[in-house]
């Protein structure tokens, strides 16, 4: 299996490239429109053909590259069934493995950050999206977020994976790349150790985070698999620069 972890600095998003050496097919997890050319160049360098883009959820901080990748290279769009994205070619469901060549992802419905959020388990690693970050977790105050649901998702599903499972999140803001389930059980200040549901509720209720500056454009755009509005303010145009410059867009 070919594996690459790629970073988009504007939204601090990790995109994951998984390639099947036998078939030459590849999957991109959480691709970002601003980094589409980089991802396509890496696929070409590795001699891979993109079969699917896969998102963990409807993102609020960037535009997915799913639709533009489909236009450019013919890749299919896979999305969590629970997010009810009408433009998806394939709806992912918990309990139904998703296979591309020798790559087999096991979808896990992990609501809380969003109601339809999914993580994807694959061999010795899990791609946790925003449900579980390195020593943190995604916020729960928009997109049908629910602190109780997130607590159960992490403690009952993700923490139930083997301790040596590698944790690859959708974001990190401190130059960290990977964790493990054991490390998060021990060191995650919000969900680790013996944190109770009541303690987690209080932590999440008192984060006092600012309103996401791109959410009002990203969420409707990502419900269409990656469309930027025509009226995007000038100070936010960098989020869709790749799309506005693309002859396909």
UniProtKB/TrEMBL annotation:
SMART domains: Lactamase_B (SM00849). Keywords: Metal-binding. Gene3D superfamilies: Ribonuclease Z/Hydroxyacylglutathione hydrolase-like. CDD domains: POD-like_MBL-fold. InterPro entries: Metallo-B-lactamas, Mito_Persulfide_Diox, POD-like_MBL-fold, RibonucZ/Hydroxyglut_hydro. Coiled coil: none annotated. Residues 12-171 form the Metallo-beta-lactamase domain. This is MBL fold metallo-hydrolase. It comes from Noviherbaspirillum album. The lineage of its organism: Bacteria, Pseudomonadati, Pseudomonadota, Betaproteobacteria, Burkholderiales.
């Amino acid at each position: 299996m070919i594996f690459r972890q790629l970073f988009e600095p504007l939204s601090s998003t990790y995109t994951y490239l998984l390639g099947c050496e036998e078939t030459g097919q590849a999957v991109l997890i959480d691709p970002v429109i601003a980094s589409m050319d980089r991802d396509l160049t890496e696929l070409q360098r590795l001699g891979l053909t993109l079969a699917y883009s896969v998102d963990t959820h409807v993102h609020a901080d960037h535009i997915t590259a799913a639709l533009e990748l489909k236009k450019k290279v013919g890749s299919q769009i896979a999305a969590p069934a629970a997010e009810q994205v009408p433009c998806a070619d394939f709806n992912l469901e918990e309990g139904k493995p998703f296979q591309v060549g020798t790559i087999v992802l096991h979808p896990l419905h992990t609501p809380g950050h969003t109601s339809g959020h999914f993580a994807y388990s694959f061999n010795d690693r899990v791609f946790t999206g925003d449900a579980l970050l390195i020593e943190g977790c995604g916020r729960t105050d928009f997109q049908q977020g629910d602190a109780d649901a997130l607590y159960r998702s992490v403690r009952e599903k993700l923490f139930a994976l083997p301790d040596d499972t590698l944790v690859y999140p959708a974001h990190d803001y401190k130059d960290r790349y990977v964790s493990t389930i054991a490390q998060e059980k021990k060191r995650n200040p919000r969900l680790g150790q013996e944190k109770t549901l009541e303690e987690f509720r209080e932590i999440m209720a008192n984060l006092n985070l600012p309103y996401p500056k791109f959410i009002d454009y990203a969420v409707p755009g990502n419900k269409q698999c990656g469309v930027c509005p025509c009226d995007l303010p000038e100070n936010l145009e960098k989020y869709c620069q790749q799309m506005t410059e693309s002859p396909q867009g």
